[in-house]
Amino acid sequence: GAGVSQSPSNKVTEKGKDVELRCDPISGHTALYWYRQSLGQGLEFLIYFQGNSAPDKSGLPSDRFSAERTGGSVSTLTIQRTQQEDSAVYLCASSFPDRGREQFFGPGTRLTVL
Amino acid sequence: QKEVEQNSGPLSVPEGAIASLNCTYSDRGSQSFFWYRQYSGKSPELIMFIYSNGDKEDGRFTAQLNKASQYVSLLIRDSQPSDSATYLCAVNGDYKLSFGAGTTVTVRA
Question: Using the beta-carbon criterion (under 8 Å), do B95 and A55 form an inter-chain contact?
Answer without folding.
Answer: yes
